[in-house]
Amino acid sequence: xxxxxxxxxxxxxxxxxxxxxxxxxxxxxxxxxxxxxxxxxxxxxxxxxxxxxxxxxxxxxxxxxxxxxxxxxxxxxxxxxxxxxxxxxxxxxxxxxxxxxxxxxxxxxxxx
Amino acid sequence: xxxxxxxxxxxxxxxxxxxxxxxxxxxxxxxxxxxxxxxxxxxxxxxxxxxxxxxxxxxxxxxxxxxxxxxxxxxxxxxxxxxxxxxxxxxxxxxxxxxxxxxxxxxxxxxxxxxxxxxxxxxxxxxxxxxxxxxxxxxxxxxxxxxxxxxxxxxxxxxxxxxxxxxxxxxxxxxxxxxxxxxxxxxxxxxxxxxxxxxxxxxxxxxxxxxxxxxxxxxxxxxxxxxxxxxxxxxxxxxxxxxxxxxxxxxxxxxxxxxxxxxxxxxxxxxxxxxxxxxxxxxxxxxxxxxxxxxxxxxxxxxxxxxxxxxxxxxxxxxxxxxxxxxxxxxxxxxxxxxxxxxxxxxxxxxxxxxxxxxxxxxxxxxxxxxxxxxxxxxxxxxxxxxxxxxxxxxxxxxxxxxxxxxxxxxxxxxxxxxxxxxxxxxxxxxxxxxxxxxxxxx
Lengths: 112, 443
Hints:
The complex is a heterodimer of chains A (112) and B (443). Chain A is 20% helix and 37% strand. Chain A is an alpha+beta fold and 112 residues long. In chain A, the strands form two sheets. In chain A, strands 2-5-1-6 form a four-stranded antiparallel sheet, covered by helices on one side. Chain A has a two-stranded antiparallel sheet with strand order 3-4. By secondary structure, chain B is mainly alpha-helical. Chain B has a single domain, classed as Ammonium transporter AmtB like domains (Ammonium transporter fold), CATH 1.10.3430. Chain B contains 15 helices and no strands. The radius of gyration of chain B is 24 Å and the shape is globular.
């Protein structure tokens, strides 16, 4: 099992979500986050004075997948979230020790 | 059809002719006078409603220019300003301003008992118009000292301005006081309303000190952007709308329509040119046309044209708006640099342009349009300009001294500023126990 943590543009969510739905992964956790990578902040102006908004609104997706599905899920996220402009986001992949579905008590791959 | 109509009119025409023949000309004059007073009163009441609506403009502008956590607080202060002005001006303010007295202050007609209207309209219509003006002067202050002033302290500040500072300067200029006798001109209040409000805001914000987080330890400036450009923009348009009543209504008479027409046009021109000037300047300086400054530019034009609007030709209104726009752009940045934290730009808009508008009379004003002397551009020399400068400087000194004392006294006794903890959490929840946008998750 692998955990995918994807930081994406808020505008990319619908595309990514639909793509994962089609691949049989309807569940995900989404968090509103703020930050910046190479994109840096955004320059704004108020009453003639420039200032920098350092952190931009992004979404963080967390999905746990079985090992053999990992490449196709990653491909789908990259395909849907890529605009080729700076600020598209980043994906991190982690090993997962175990998973338990609380309702049934299933664990391991069966809980996903 | 025509024939039929014609026949129907015969009895009416006959009746009118009979009436004209049978009544004396004195009676006809009487009717004419009464209808003139009636029309003038309708005009003044209409203008009063327009000026009253400027409270909504000030409220929306100030709310939009500050942060969410202090929005209900500033709106409560605006609301209070008008209520206090209404009651205070009725009880004492009118007597100080328009009562019989000396060159400095009036002192008859308390609670309007025995008071008289100096205008060709009935007392209560005139009083309502003047009350709306008084409310505007007080509301200007709220913006300059926003986001850190205790509400209880503000109640006293609002009362002092409405019943004493504003009416006393008003008496000098409009109540037959010493400035009026010298030939000082301020048609609709660049000095009486805007310089008074703007200078009170200036001394208030100096004594209060900047908002927490406005300046860094190394002296660099942080921008604290307003929370709603749409609210601020609505506010500016409402103010612009109300200004037609503020300036054109100050004729207190519809006349033959030519004067109120010229005043309304001058007002509009100056506002538009002020906004355009601020747009061009910010576009050149920051590479972007900056709406927050464009709006202040229009307000600058409006404030500046307020004093001279009746005494100038439209070309002069354009020049006045142009200079007003320049003053506001550099004024905002100057205040930032000298560490005077004025969240909404009350000082550059109302104080600096109030002064500019007052001086502009001495430059662009015309004797043929009702001024005591021709201005500089019309060969009148420096006489009128000198009188204007004297009136402006005296008003500034008077407001600085009186309001400085009031702010200092409040600061030493009941406290002028909220605690830092209250300021960080926001005045809405700490001073009023409410949130402006309850239930919404917004930054």
